[in-house]
């Protein structure tokens, strides 16, 4: 997080409230464990995600393979870790892209207003009326954005919600008297935005960011499940569930373990968001 | 009032056209190398997909032709050799999709709305905590993961319900439950927020002070006002349920539009992909229109605003 926002007293208090919330911290811990394990996958597991061994097919969880092996005899634990790398990277990049684009467009809409605002918001309305899954499928299939590049389409799908949130925040702030005061003192343009507007919309943006990230993880893994975008033998969380489900009669755990990991990760992100929101709401009540 | 509704109906047309433009435009900016892969086999030759769905002309000429064919002739272009009649398929499959989505919406409303009300009334009691936690968990489980669990338990272990196809009775039960999980959490969140906000209003305190029974305060007075934000969010919920239904259709092999779309993606059938996307756009806009009408019915303030504007009263620039 930027230290710019930390300088404001009200914000420090909601952050400190967040660090004292046990549910939020537990969720953060779970999420960080998952992320660190995925990022450091080569250090955590000694198996490659695509090394097969016929003898180990459908092996039940044991000491060597703590989550067992899939239908090709690949270690499921390392496939989950490498899959998490893929899923979290795509979802994370898409969320950051959507958020930064949303910031620029949203602030522009809120500050400029008028016809520009109207046109952009109409465009966002059209964009948000298409389900994000459909948008990503179309980008992937019609435009041939293979190799995980559909994260751009995912970013576009998440864009309208960010723009709407940030624009609402900006136009609410623009009416406040301290903005008028800053203007009277000669603060203009980018300076006004960075110094006075941005710090005020960042908290609610962070809350939205967590929710959007959770949705992007779901979207990315759904794409993997449908077999669009990420191709085997590469690992992706949704793909792992799909592969597991094809053999569910024989070994249910190869589908259930990845499903559980995805749900746990999304749940932890959602809980972080909930806790952040509660801290923020509490702060507003105190004022 | 009537004028507003007519205006609203007319507004459907540009939105539908814009969404189809978005879909159609994607095809136009497709890189050439990928275009070859999208060619449609007609007779013995492979034709570029644009020539199949709208022969000759510039971008807008083709786009208008495609829209004209779609709306006035209900034709989406020929899918090439060996592809069944797309129009008939689209119609048949939307039937299944709407059935699934409708039943899911009904189930989620039946469970989600009462749960949300209880959660708001018993705010920060154990009921509220349980329901809120359940909503968070339900919204965190990807639908296909839930489907795996349900299929494993009810189809494979217990053998009560089918998990594939629509030939047996009860084949929609598991898909509906899968899709509803998301709808329920959505309803709980919206209803809880709406009702608890209404319960903080002063007129509720006044009603309570007047000695009205709590059941009446919540059931008759608070709920009536909470209906406004709830109905306003109905469109978003319906869109989500429709999107979630696509995945459930694929998982449980329900021959709906999502299954059709994903099969077309697998087999690289661009004409079918376009047809599915465009028809989805139309259905979504219609759903949004319906939910707008529902919020109009639920919100007297909006009705007043609308009719005063229609009578030529002061326009509040939106």
Q: Topology, please?
A:
The complex is a heterodimer of chains A (287) and B (318).
Chain A (H helix, E strand, L loop, with lengths): L2 H4 L2 H12 L1 H18 L1 H4 L31 H37 L1 H15 L3 H12 L7 H24 L2 H8 L4 H38 L10 H10 L6 H34 L1
Chain B lengths: L1 H27 L3 H6 L2 E3 L2 E3 L1 H5 L5 H14 L13 H36 L4 H15 L2 H15 L15 H27 L2 H8 L4 H19 L1 H19 L4 H10 L3 H29 L1 H11 L8
Antiparallel strand pairs in B: 1-2
Helix pairs in contact in B: 1-13, 5-6, 5-8, 5-11, 6-8, 7-8, 8-10, 8-11, 10-13, 11-12, 11-13, 12-13
Overview of the structural elements:
- The complex is a heterodimer of chains A (287) and B (318).
- By secondary structure, chain A is mainly α.
- Chain A is 75% helix and 0% strand.
- Chain A has helices spanning 3-6, 9-20, 22-39, 41-44, 76-112, 114-128, 132-143, 151-174, 177-184, 189-226, 237-246, 253-286.
- In chain A, helix 6 (114-128) crosses helix 8, helix 7 (132-143) crosses helix 8 and helix 10 (189-226) packs antiparallel against helix 12.
- Chain A starts with a helix and ends with a helix.
- Mean pLDDT of chain A is 82; it is low at 1-5.
- With 318 residues, chain B is mostly helical.
- In chain B, strand 1 (40-42) and strand 2 (45-47) form a beta hairpin.
- Chain B is flat and about 80 Å long.
- Chain B starts with a helix and ends in an 8-residue tail after the last helix.
- The model of chain B is unreliable at 313-318 (pLDDT under 50).
- At the A-B interface, helix 6, helix 7, helix 10, helix 11 and helix 12 of A face helix 1, helix 2, helix 6, helix 7 and helix 11 of B.
């Amino acid at each position: 997080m930027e230290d710019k926002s930390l300088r404001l007293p009200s914000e420090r208090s909601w952050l400190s409230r967040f660090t004292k919330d046990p549910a939020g911290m537990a969720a953060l811990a779970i999420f960080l464990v998952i992320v660190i394990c995925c990022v450091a996958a080569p250090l955590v597991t000694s198996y490659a995600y695509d090394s097969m061994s016929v003898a180990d097919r459908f092996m039940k969880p044991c000491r060597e393979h703590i989550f067992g092996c899939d239908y090709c005899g690949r270690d499921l634990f390392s496939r989950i870790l490498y899959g998490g790398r893929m899923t979290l990277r795509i979802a994370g990049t898409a969320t950051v892209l959507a958020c930064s684009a949303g910031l620029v467009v949203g602030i522009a809409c809120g500050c400029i207003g008028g016809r520009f605002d109207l046109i952009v918001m109409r465009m966002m309305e059209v964009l948000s009326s298409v389900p994000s899954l459909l948008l990503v499928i179309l980008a992937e299939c019609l435009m041939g954005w293979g190799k995980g590049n559909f994260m751009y389409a995912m970013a576009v799908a998440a864009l309208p919600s960010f723009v709407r949130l940030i624009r609402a925040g900006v136009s609410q702030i623009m009416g406040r008297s301290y903005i008028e005061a800053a203007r009277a003192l000669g603060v203009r343009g980018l300076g006004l935005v960075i110094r006075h507007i941005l710090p005020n919309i960042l908290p609610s943006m962070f809350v939205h960011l967590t929710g959007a990230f959770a949705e992007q993880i779901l979207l990315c893994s759904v794409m993997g499940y449908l077999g669009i975008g990420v191709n085997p033998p590469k690992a992706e969380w949704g793909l792992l569930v799909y592969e597991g489900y094809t053999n569910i009669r024989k070994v249910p755990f190869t589908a259930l373990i990845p499903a559980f990991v995805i749900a746990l990760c999304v749940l932890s992100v959602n809980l972080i968001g909930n806790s952040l929101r509660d801290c923020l709401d509490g702060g507003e009540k105190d004022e | 009032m009537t004028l507003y509704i007519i205006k609203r109906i007319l507004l459907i047309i540009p939105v539908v056209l814009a969404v189809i433009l978005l879909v159609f435009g994607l095809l136009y900016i497709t890189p050439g190398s990928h275009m070859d892969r999208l060619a449609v086999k007609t007779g013995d030759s492979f034709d570029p997909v644009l020539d199949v769905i709208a022969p000759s002309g510039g971008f807008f000429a083709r786009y208008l032709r495609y829209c004209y064919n779609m709306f006035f002739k209900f034709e989406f272009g020929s899918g090439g050799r060996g592809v069944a009649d797309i129009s008939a398929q689209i119609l048949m499959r939307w039937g299944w999709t709407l059935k699934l989505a409708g039943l899911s919406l009904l189930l989620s409303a039946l469970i989600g709305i009462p749960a949300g009300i209880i959660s708001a009334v018993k705010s920060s009691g154990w009921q509220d905590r349980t329901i809120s936690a359940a909503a968070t968990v339900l919204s965190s489980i990807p639908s296909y993961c839930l489907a795996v669990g349900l299929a494993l338990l009810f189809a494979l272990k217990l053998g009560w319900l089918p998990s594939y196809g629509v030939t047996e009775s009860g084949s929609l039960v598991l898909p509906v439950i899968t899709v509803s999980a998301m709808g329920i959490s959505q309803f709980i969140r919206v209803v809880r927020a709406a009702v608890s906000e209404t319960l903080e209003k002063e007129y509720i305190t006044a009603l309570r002070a007047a000695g009205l029974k709590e059941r009446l305060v919540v059931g008759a007075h608070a709920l009536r006002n909470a209906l406004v934000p709830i109905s306003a969010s109905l469109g978003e919920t319906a869109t989500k349920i429709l999107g979630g239904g696509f995945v459930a259709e694929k998982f449980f092999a329900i021959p709906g539009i999502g299954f059709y779309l994903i099969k077309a993606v697998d087999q690289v059938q661009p004409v079918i992909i376009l047809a599915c996307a465009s028809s989805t756009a139309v259905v979504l806009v219609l759903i949004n229109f319906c939910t707008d009408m529902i919020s109009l019915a639920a919100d007297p303030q909006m009705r007043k605003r609308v009719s005063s504007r229609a009578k030529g009263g002061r326009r509040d620039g939106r």
